[in-house]
Design goal:
Number of helices of chain A: 10
Strand content of chain A: 15-25%
Oligomer: homodimer
CATH class of the largest domain in chain A: Alpha Beta
CATH superfamily of the largest domain in chain A: Creatinase/methionine aminopeptidase superfamily
Radius of gyration of chain A: 23 Å
Order of helices and strands of chain A: HEHEEHEHEHEHHHEEEEEEHHEEEEEEEE
Strand order of the largest sheet of chain A: 4-3-2-1-5-6
Structural class of chain A: alpha+beta
Chain lengths: ~375, ~375
């Protein structure tokens, strides 16, 4: 399939969904969804650049002049409204919305579109209701095709290789930031386009903070260290967490690691088509609760992974989405002991016809690093 | 001044502005403005995390449980509404907004807040109007204090050092991506926290695309190469563009470079307190027009630089903002010849009492690289 056919099919699928829910149009900012639908995106910024997809007819962009040629070349879409820096985007946006908003139904908005631009759309279309496009975009993006899975697999293999490489040098005496940089370098050397997110290296008490990044702290004997990182290849991302210990672990650390490892494996084993996303979360949570650690597991079990590092389906209580082949998400239970340590183990898996296949293969053993 | 005093003063200044424009409250997502006002931020994501600043009284966060401790420790703000993954953010947001939206005036929204979260706020406060917070946030953030200028200066010095380093190795035969990586590495080695944005290395015909990034193209003799890059130090950014040529330049390339260099210098020389931002744009544009290149200059002359790489004041036709000491922005005219080459020269300057001071000092000569 040529890429223009691929994007044409995805745009048609969006338009079918817009018809099904009687929406007027979809507004997409610079985001992974723009890339998914057209092959083009860039970092979001203060210059308004949006893709407008009407329920019927040709999609087009409202685009700053200095992007116009790039957008046309990259996407082949030509129903564009171009604005120059000295004019501002106001008139181009109003003209474009007037041109495409020909139905009374709601205007759907891609989730990460800047509020500044949503407010401008609302001013231009005061009679329309606005609501989230996440349900229809998630529906289309959640099931990955074979090419997407291949890119995700490659990104996972690079993360595995970086784990092997980073273990070649002792941790003691190095800072978290140094180890984060070593992971990033190893992934680039192994062919990554870049990191999937700023690598997280949390040592000692910081390992008890699930969303700590990496700091200037030097790793010392006795520290537990959580590594949580991934890379991008062709836009698709990997995400892996492993917990290691610098020197001999205490019994408590071993017990926590055993519990998380068991919970993670049980949750992965529970993945198959037809099971609700929340069931995977419950499986991990029940396993930790049975060992008295349920209240130490203070986050959801996982999140979808694709062009975004966090995307649907979320593996969380209340999410009744039934798993289907091609869905890709992380399974990453963890336990956190404030001001002392934490443990997390994470693999991304793709749902297969009968179960799941992990994207990363690094050992789940508790590794002792120097 | 302790940092908590600094943030307290900035929050008070916001509240004064909210009172002045009779607004009810300000909603700030994970962004540079959150960092500016509280010292805390992170990458924006799908979990709702917003700072709510009422016109009067204590500000607070709506915050996911797994960030709650970090946010409290980093900011000292305690009027927080915490939500857990299994609950979702809906109730916490509604309760928080009800608690702080005690006035009938509009709710102001920080520009980059995700639309998904603005829609949620609009559902929770159906009686309130919503509008952009950019005017009041820009007013506060545009004038940098001495500490901010020092960080910007340091970021500029690192960019200069990277330019010196990247010229040590011939360009011919290397790819754009390799040179972009060399710039990023040189900045990290020189003490940067990271890049200010993905470095732009545009060679040959790609140099005619102002917003091209860097690709797999190998640089060859005869190519013009635009380097446009910068770094972060303590959150503040640098931004520099230089145009070099691989081998002997043609007369046409020399003439274009001379014209841009002259236009850039004239524009920088025009910077002083009391001059309108649009005047700086006009100065650069008139200089290029006088050489018959006005229609080749297809973007604004510059943008403010600070915690964001693009922020007010924008140096563009129609912007009547009067320059004040402490304002920091780029001056970066360029000319573009589609499918052939382009030239851009950029420095960031800070407005002083009587003129301006550049943050970067790398030569403006047309350098010939191997």
């Amino acid at each position: 399939m040529t890429s223009s056919t691929l994007y044409g099919e995805r745009l048609s699928a969006v338009q079918s969904e817009l018809g099904r829910c009687s929406a007027s149009l979809l507004v997409v900012g610079l985001s992974s969804s723009m890339r998914y639908l057209t092959g083009f995106t860039d970092e979001p910024g203060e210059r308004l650049l949006v893709l407008l997809i009407p329920r019927e007819g040709e999609p087009g962009f409202v685009v700053p002049e200095l992007y116009a040629e790039q957008v046309l070349t990259a996407t082949g879409l030509a129903r564009n409204f171009v604005w120059a820096d000295h004019e501002g985007s106001h008139h181009a946006l109003a003209a474009a919305l007037k041109d495409v908003a020909r139905w009374p139904g709601p205007v759907l908005v891609e989730e990460s579109l800047w509020s500044e631009f949503l407010l401008a759309c609302q001013r231009a279309l005061p009679q329309h209701a606005f609501s989230s496009a996440t349900p229809i975009l998630a529906k289309l993006r959640m099931r990955k095709d074979a090419h997407e899975v291949e890119l995700l697999r490659r990104a996972g293999a690079i993360a595995d290789e970086a784990f092997r490489r980073v273990l070649e040098t002792p941790f003691a005496g190095r800072t978290e930031i140094e180890i984060a940089a070593a992971l990033a370098d190893a992934m680039r050397d192994a062919g990554a386009d870049g990191t999937a997110f700023e690598p997280l290296v949390a040592s000692g008490p910081a390992a008890a903070l699930p969303h700590y990044r990496a700091g200037g702290r030097r790793i010392a004997r006795g520290d537990v260290v959580i590594l949580d990182y991934g890379c991008r290849t062709g836009g698709y991302r990997s995400d892996i967490s492993r917990t290691v210990v610098c020197g001999e672990p205490s019994r408590e650390i071993r017990a926590a690691h055993d519990a998380v490892r068991d919970a993670q494996q049980r949750a992965v084993n529970a993945v198959k088509p037809g099971v609700a996303a929340e069931e995977i979360d419950r499986t991990a949570r029940d396993a930790l609760t049975s060992r008295g650690l349920g209240d130490r597991f203070i986050h959801r079990t996982g999140h979808g992974v694709g062009l975004d590092i966090h995307e649907p389906p979320y593996i969380v209580a209340g999410n009744k989405t039934l798993l289907e082949p091609g869905m890709v998400f992380s399974v990453e239970p963890g336990v956190y002991f404030p001001e002392r340590f934490g443990v997390r183990i994470e693999d991304v898996v793709v749902v297969s016809e009968s179960g799941s296949v992990p994207m990363t293969a690094a050992t789940h053993e508790l590794l002792i690093v120097g």
